Every structure is written in C-alpha cells, then in structure tokens.
Amino acid sequence: MSSTRTITCRELTEVLTDYLEGVMPVEDRVRFEAHLAICDGCVTYVTQMRQTIEAARALHPAHVEATAPDDLLDAFRAWQRGEPVPEP
Amino acid sequence: MTSAPEIEIVTPMRSDEETLAALRRGDERVFVELVEQHQTLMLRVASRYVRNQAVAEEVVQETWLGVLKGLRNFEGRASLKTWIFRILTNRAITRAEREGRAVPFSSVGDTGPDEPAVDPDRFRPEGDRWPGGWKCFPDPLPEDRLLERETLAVIDSAIAELPDRQHLVISMRDIEGWSADEVCQALQISEANQRVLLHRARSKVRRCLEAYLDPAPALT
Q1: Are residues B157 and B194 in the same domain?
Q2: Which whole-number Å values give the CA distances from B33 to A45, A78, B163, in the listed order?
Q3: Which of A61, A75, A80 sits opposite B26 (nearest CB)?
Q4: Are B84 and B146 found together in one domain?
C-alpha cells in the first residue's frame, strides 16, 4: 500500500487478517476503514470472513471423548511416589 | 423481593496455578482432566509432523512423560498449555527427523508459495476505470445456514485439506480459540509467519464456504 493512494478491493482482501488481528499500522487502518465506508462489496467480504471464523469456532468439540490411557495413570502414580518417570 | 439464586457454573476453569498445585499434590483427577482436555489436539498436531497415527500416539505419550518429568521444575513463564505443546512439538520434530521426514515448521520464515486470498478474476483488471475493484460484489452468506451440520462438515474438510502449517494454525486459533501468542510459542514460529499462515488458511476456508453456500458468485 503506498501512502498516497487509496486501497483497492483486491488489496483489502490481502490485508484483512492484519486488520482483524489488530496489527495494522494506524495509517493503513485509516485507509482500510475509509475504503469500507464507501464499498459495500468489501463490507460483505469482511462479514464473510467473520462468518467463516465464527463457523470454524463452532467446530470446537463440545465434549472430549479422549481418555487418559492406563499406562499414563501408572506413570503419574509412580511420579507421585517420587519414582523416576520411565524414559520414552 | 428476594433475589434470584446465583447460578453455579458447572465446569469452572482452573487457573494454571491451581492445576499445578493439584498435580504436585498428586491429584489424579486433575491429571486425567488435563490429559482429556489436550489429548485430541495433541494428536492432531503430532500427526501433522510424523504422519503415522501410531507414531503420533507414541509422541503424545512421550510428551506426557516429559510433562511429568518437568512438572516440579516448571516455572510458569509460559502458560501450562503452551509448555505442554512446546514439549510435544520438540518430541515430534525429533521423531520426524529421525525418520527422515520433512518437518512442517523446519525452515524459519517458510510459509509456502504466495497465493491470492480471492480468485484474481473477480477483480477488475489494470487499465479498467477501477482497477482492483470487484467485478461483482460478493453476496452475504446466509446466516441461517452457517451453523448447519452440512455447512460445518464443509468447513471441517476444507480445514483438513489445508497444508500442514496452515491446518495447525487455523485449528489452534479458530477452532480451539488460542491466542496468536500461544500458537507462536507452541509451534515455535514467528508472529509474522503465524499471521501469513492464518491469512491463507482463513482465505481458503472462506472460499470453500462461499462456493458451498453461494455456488455461482457472478464474475462479470
């Protein structure tokens, strides 16, 4: 992004993560938000990305089926008794 | 008028200090919970380094033994979770190298080939009145279908098919809700790399989601 020019739609899609991560320099952020103010297409694009993130978050397993294997529990009990942890 | 009873939170989050104290006391229940909490993601991470499910399981097992070994000396400078995953990635790297496998994060700064976030054909060309502008605006994704089982399956497989590094970063950031800093520490990558990988991963998943929910975004 040059400092004199406004940002294009295509450029916006490439720097969106920097924007969402909050690491964009303030001047670039001003240009980014100025573009959003006049471009419905990019507003929709940003919304799509937020929706993507929200949906990915919904994949988080509600409960975990994993169980601690018995040999790990044995190792924990041994460790607790002050015995050396088995070498892998 | 009496006030409503306080709602008790059923699964309180234990702080790292509380967890560590309980483990050092030998609280088996807390150890089991810790294992259950991280086991699935640990396996997912390990299997992106070593490729073989059985070896990945061994790496996870070795990691827990390493955790027990280091527990009394753990000083809590990093969070417990990032410390555990750091042990995991160290183990996985050692194992992958021993087996002559290329490790996903072996070369610093390597984020893979450049790829556009959006198909370049969707933007107006140089020489146009608005170069780099949308030829046709994207459509909003239907909110009511976003969290449907089928849609989530599309996202799940899009994430599964990502290259290793992108897969791990988006899984930890967006599915598991880790912070950027935690992911950098656990995977031993720079903040800039983490961001590039996240950007590519999210952009690709968005493309799959749009292709599924809005199959024919107009190109002209």
Answers
A1: yes
A2: 40, 18, 31
A3: A80
A4: no
Written as tens digits, the pLDDT of chain B (220 aa) is: 455 555 544 455 789 999 999 999 999 999 999 998 899 899 999 999 998 899 999 999 999 999 999 998 888 888 999 999 999 999 999 998 888 777 766 554 566 678 899 999 999 999 999 999 999 999 999 999 999 999 999 999 999 999 999 999 999 999 999 999 999 999 999 999 999 999 999 999 999 999 999 877 555 4
Round to whole Å and give the CA distance between B145 and B152. 9
Residue of A nearest to B196 (CA): A17
Same domain, B86 and B159: no
Q: pTM for the full model?
A: 0.87
Q: How far apart are CA B152 and CA A78, in angstroms?
A: 43
Task: Find out whether B176 and B38 touch, Cβ atoms under 8 Å.
Answer: no
Write the residue in B71, B130, B155 that is nearest to A55 by C-beta: B155
Using CA coordinates, name the residue in chain B closest to A74: B28
The interface predicted TM-score (ipTM) is 0.86
The residue range of the domain holding B158 is: 120-213
Q: How far is B1 from chain A (nearest CA, A)?
A: 37
Number of structural domains chain A divides into: 1
Amino acid (one-letter) located at B107 = S
Q: Contacts of residue A5 in chain B, CB cutoff 8 Å?
A: none
- Based on the fold, state whether residues B149 and B187 are members of the same structural domain: yes
Residues in chain A: 88
Residues B175 and B135 in one domain: yes
CATH number at B40 reads 1.10.1740.10
